[in-house]
């Protein structure tokens, strides 16, 4: 029987819009709600991060680059330090350097302003189809079973009623594996998503895998959550 902690078919996917322009926020909210999505809106990067801390991660974020205070890139950098949240960037400049930086470091896609809400919706749906749905119900604290839950925004696990701190890399690694719970995630894919701008070898990943197991497993030598599929990758076991 499927765990009650998994997404139910009728549960709408969550979209977070971070933009200081209220007209754009409302335009996106109306278009996406009509398409069946749950939409959160934030007027700044800090407000967006606070929403994530309070409610958990969305399935995708649409982020304006040019905002007062925390810029769009700074927001992307902050949220992707502990997760692999899919992001679509909104930019009014459209210059090649900005687009290249966004795509290489943070975003799955970009849309230039002014934009068509219909096109933005289509691009969002394409990204979500490619990335896949998060397997567990996204919440501020994601319950795996009676002894384990994960809080990505605050980078910690709750193990046997005790809080265990996770590093940003450990949190992001767990996010990647839990998003694909029950399926093996290829080593090369994990390396690219964890360290997109670095040449990091599998030995470094093995170290992080070992550290995560030491923090969440009953017996790290005989893991029940985070399994190795030799020669392929790693799999988070659906509980």
Topology:
Blueprint (H helix, E strand, L loop, with lengths): L13 E5 L3 H13 L3 E5 L2 H11 L4 E5 L7 H8 L7 E5 L4 H10 L3 E4 L4 H15 L10 E2 L4 E4 L4 E4 L2 E4 L2 H12 L4 E3 H8 L7 H15 L9 E4 L3 E4 L3
Parallel strand pairs: 1-2, 1-3, 3-4, 4-5
Antiparallel strand pairs: 6-7, 7-8, 8-9, 10-12, 11-12
Helix pairs in contact: 2-3, 6-8
Describe the structure.
The protein has two domains: about 120 residues, Rossmann fold, CATH 3.40.50; about 100 residues, Arc Repressor Mutant, subunit A, CATH 1.10.10. The strands form three sheets. It has a five-stranded parallel sheet with strand order 2-1-3-4-5, with helices on both faces. Strands 6-7-8-9 form a four-stranded antiparallel sheet, with no helix packed on it. The model has no long low-confidence stretch (mean pLDDT about 90). The longest helix is centred in the middle third of the chain and has 15 residues. β8 and β9 form a beta hairpin. The protein has eight helices and twelve strands. The protein is an alpha/beta fold and about 240 residues long. It is globular and about 55 Å long. α2 packs parallel to α3.
State the main characteristics.
239 residues; alpha/beta; Rossmann fold; Arc Repressor Mutant, subunit A; 2 domains; five-stranded parallel sheet; four-stranded antiparallel sheet; 8 helices; 38% helix; 21% strand; globular
Put the structure in a nutshell.
The protein is α/β, with parallel strands linked by helices and 239 residues long. The chain has helices at residues 22-34, 45-55, 72-79, 96-105, 117-131, 168-179, 187-194, 202-216, and strands at residues 14-18, 38-42, 60-64, 87-91, 109-112, 142-143, 148-151, 156-159, 162-165, 184-186, 226-229, 233-236. The model has no long low-confidence stretch (mean pLDDT 89).
């Amino acid at each position: 029987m499927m765990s009650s902690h998994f997404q139910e078919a009728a549960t709408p996917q969550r979209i977070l819009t971070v933009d200081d322009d209220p007209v754009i926020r409302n335009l996106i909210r109306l278009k996406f709600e009509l398409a069946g999505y749950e939409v959160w809106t934030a007027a700044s990067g800090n407000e967006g991060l606070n929403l994530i801390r309070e409610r958990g991660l969305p399935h995708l974020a649409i982020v304006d680059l040019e905002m007062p205070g925390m810029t769009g890139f700074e927001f992307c950098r902050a949220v992707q330090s502990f997760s692999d949240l899919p992001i679509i960037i909104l930019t009014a400049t459209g210059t090649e350097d900005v687009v290249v930086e966004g795509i290489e470091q943070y975003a799955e896609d970009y849309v230039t302003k002014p934009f068509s809400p219909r096109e933005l919706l289509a691009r969002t749906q394409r990204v979500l189809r490619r990335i896949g749905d998060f397997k567990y119900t996204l919440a501020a604290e994601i319950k795996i079973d009676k002894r384990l839950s994960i809080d990505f925004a605050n980078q910690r696990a709750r193990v046997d009623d005790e809080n265990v701190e996770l590093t940003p890399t450990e949190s992001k690694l767990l996010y990647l594996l839990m998003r694909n719970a029950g399926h093996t995630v290829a080593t090369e894919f994990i390396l690219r998503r964890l360290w997109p701008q670095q040449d990091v070898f599998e030995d470094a990943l093995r170290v992080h895998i070992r550290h995560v197991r030491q923090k969440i497993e009953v017996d790290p030598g005989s893991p029940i959550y985070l399994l190795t599929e030799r020669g392929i990758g790693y799999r988070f076991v659906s509980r």
